[in-house]
Amino acid sequence: MTPSPASGKRQHVVDTAYALFRQGGFHATGIDRIIAEADIAKMTMYRHFPSKDELIVEVLDYRAGRFDRQLDRLEQEGITAEQKISKIFDWHERWFRGDDFHGCLFAHALAEFGDPGHPVFKAVARQKNRLRSRMQAILEDVMPPDCAEGAAAALLMLIEGATLMAQMGQPAIGNARKAAAAIIGAASVPH
Amino acid sequence: MTPSPASGKRQHVVDTAYALFRQGGFHATGIDRIIAEADIAKMTMYRHFPSKDELIVEVLDYRAGRFDRQLDRLEQEGITAEQKISKIFDWHERWFRGDDFHGCLFAHALAEFGDPGHPVFKAVARQKNRLRSRMQAILEDVMPPDCAEGAAAALLMLIEGATLMAQMGQPAIGNARKAAAAIIGAASVPH
DNA sequence: CTAAAAAGAGACAGACCTGTCTCATCACCA
DNA sequence: TGGTGATGAGACAGGTCTGTCTCTTTTTAG
């Protein structure tokens, strides 16, 4: 039973942990650091989250949920599939340019929790699969489903790679865009 | 002054640390674990490597060197640029299928050492830049240099993304290959 | 054979880690 | 006002971490 479903403390811990994990990584960020930054007692945190691992999963799910809602709004817009994909690249470009960009939290989580049975690993796989299937759904408007599956996978790979390069200080989102256009162009059915 | 330039102990430590870092990550793999697995005394390790961070850099540079030599041999082969790129994808495909594949060690290092001033970060940036520039050199045989630069970046992004997806148990190297063909086809100068 | 270099063995320090426990305090609601 | 649940504060346990130190043993080179 969660101690306080309506409490703001829980989300505050998630927010603080999110910021710290992003900057310093998961193993390198200790519980003591999180509770100091969030200005709460240690027991308050452990009453909400039974372990650090579960807090990490919660942070990832929270972040994934926000991104998912962004995709919800995108899908409701009355624009072409190409424009929707372009908007996803826009989001990433803005993200890369931000002051506190430190790479993809999910990719980092995968790096630190490589065991496929670990809950953190599963949370990462969930998020990446969701993004891929949603891009696939978008692409199915302009190409047959089997083509859309491969194209969505290719777009996801480009985005992941672009995020990694952006973290190394090499903005290549423009090249990713051009490559995405070539991929979609090669798979699209002319209308 | 390095204690023993010709000693095999040093490389043995690097090999052991490489295997452990790959499986368990950097922060999660302690010095004690490394020396136990390598069956050496702790002081032997610290005489060769002044700190854990420098050992990590050494491991990364060693791995990068091996990959670089593989690229050297590839460049000497008398095959087309497309065939060379295809061979690089072959290497990755075999790597992904291996039993002890745990993702890209360099990407993982970047996840755990996100500070651009950190020696580990710089070692990662070196390796990725080298791979990109070498792919660019290959592509310049079939397209103008400015096109080759963008195409090489796109190929690197695809490869990084494919590695990440492979780690999540979703083999997408075939889709990456098709996307690479579309990218090269769009940028190539017909001869 | 001998002297120097390398390695082994293990104690040790000091810090940090996760997670638990107790008790006092505070807010809110009936 | 009284009670109840959430929180604060901090000690504490038990473990792990990196890195240092000393002493002994082994290996290597001249």
UniProtKB/TrEMBL annotation, chains A, B:
Q: What's the domain of life for this entry? A: Bacteria
A GO molecular function for this record? DNA binding
Q: Which residues bind DNA?
A: 30-49
Q: Which residues form the HTH tetR-type domain?
A: 7-67
Q: Does this UniProt record's set of keywords contain NADP?
A: no
Q: Which PROSITE patterns match?
A: HTH_TETR_2
Q: Which UniProt keywords apply?
A: DNA-binding, Transcription, Transcription regulation
Question: Which InterPro entries does UniProt cross-reference here?
Answer: Homeodomain-like_sf, HTH_TetR, Tet_transcr_reg_TetR-rel_C_sf
Q: Which PANTHER family match?
A: HTH-TYPE TRANSCRIPTIONAL REGULATOR YJDC, TRANSCRIPTIONAL REGULATORY PROTEIN
Q: What's the protein here called?
A: TetR/AcrR family transcriptional regulator
